[in-house]
Amino acid sequence: NELYGAGLRGVLPKVPVDFATLEARATAAMPRYVLDYVQGGCGDEHTQRWNAEAFRHWGMVPRMLVDTATRDLTTELFGLALPSPIFMAPIGVTGICTQDGHGDIAAAQASAATGVPLMLSTLSNDPMEAVAKACGDTPAFFQLYTPKDTALAESLVSRAEAAGYKAIVVTLDTWVTGWRPRDLNSGNFPQLRGHVLANYFSDPVFGKLLGHAVADDPAAAVGLWARLFGKVLTWDDLAWLRGATKLPIVLKGICHPDDAARAADAGVDAIYCSNHGGRQANGGVAAIDMLPGVVAAAGDVPVLFDSGVRSGSDVVKALAMGARAVGVGRPYLYGLALGGADGAAHVLRSILAEADLMMAVNGWPTLEAVRAAGAARQG
Ligand code: FNR
């Protein structure tokens, strides 16, 4: 209503409402190294392209004569009532997208404004405690890249718990960075370009391991971060993690149904089907094509999804295919780049507005109705 109403009054949105225009506008506005980092992926990036294109192979069939005058987009996750079924996927070095370098605070403000939860990356440029505050009443989740040093990993987890994050999301597919030609060819490693790795640099255990203040020798701090980044996790490590936190545990990066079944058996609180937006392994199948198998194998365990979500229609399809909540990644970064917190909030609202309209015109008043409608593979 807000968007259509403004359009009728001749007021155009500052940030485009669709992904193609949004990406084109952001591409023109972002410095090259930022664009390479945000838009780039692994190898020749065909997995990344498939992620988005594969949504076009799934279709849904509308129902008529159903009262959809009001729609209910609320969902539940870990006992939390969420106003909508989307969240902001974890993105490291988000500060690269904003003028002031505080992209995580801006993302948190967008979260507070929209009620869309933020999953904060370990590699945020703002300390997790400050980001949690900026999220206001909207719940937030903490994404863990598990450092090799166990005491440091436990410190990050316990800080997240103390700061009020509502779940620990462990990313499994990134103990080492994937083959990213754009960054390799340009020598562009955004993590190392002066963006403060705030969660590490503010951590007391990290400070002890460094042996002196981060400010005294920032290069040594970055070097230590790089040496500590990325423990190779195995199924055996889940017991350690369970003992390290009372928070719900989510495993991010599950695509194989057997892994989903094993994760469910291991008692995790949610399974996050994702291939990291094609940034880690090129040659993988589109994540959306793996979602139905993961959902079937997960049984009662809720499944989160991301990779290739570009619109409200993609969100609704992923929900129809069994996701409990759907992560928005690159689109909100483009929103941040074009309009800071307001730009990111606008992108999230546009996606939700399209999802809501999809439900209105297709005869699905609730998310249960969406799920019952299902999606069929075309061609
Ligand atoms: C990511 N992603 C990511 N995931 C994660 O667990 N921790 C992180 O720090 C990051 N960092 C990151 C940076 C950038 C620039 C991007 C684009 C992505 C992956 C992210 O959570 C999500 O899986 C993808 O963004 C989904 O793909 P699309 O839909 O954005 O293409």
Automatic annotation (TrEMBL):
Q: Which organism encodes this protein?
A: Sphingomonas donggukensis
Q: Tell me where in this chain the FMN hydroxy acid dehydrogenase domain is found.
A: 11-379
Record's PANTHER family?
FMN-DEPENDENT ALPHA-HYDROXY ACID DEHYDROGENASE PB1A11.03, S -2-HYDROXY-ACID OXIDASE-RELATED
Q: Which InterPro entries does the record cross-reference, listed alphabetically? A: Aldolase_TIM (IPR013785), Alpha-hydoxy_acid_DH_FMN (IPR012133), FMN-dep_DH (IPR000262), FMN_HAD (IPR037396), FMN_hydac_DH_AS (IPR008259)
A Pfam family cross-referenced in the UniProt record is: FMN_dh
Per UniProt, the keywords (alphabetical) are: Oxidoreductase
Say yes or no: keyword Transmembrane present: no
Q: Which cofactor does it need?
A: FMN
List residues traversing the bilayer: none
Q: Give the protein's recorded name.
A: Alpha-hydroxy-acid oxidizing protein
Q: Which family does it belong to?
A: Belongs to the FMN-dependent alpha-hydroxy acid dehydrogenase family.
Superkingdom of source: Bacteria
Lyase recorded as keyword: no
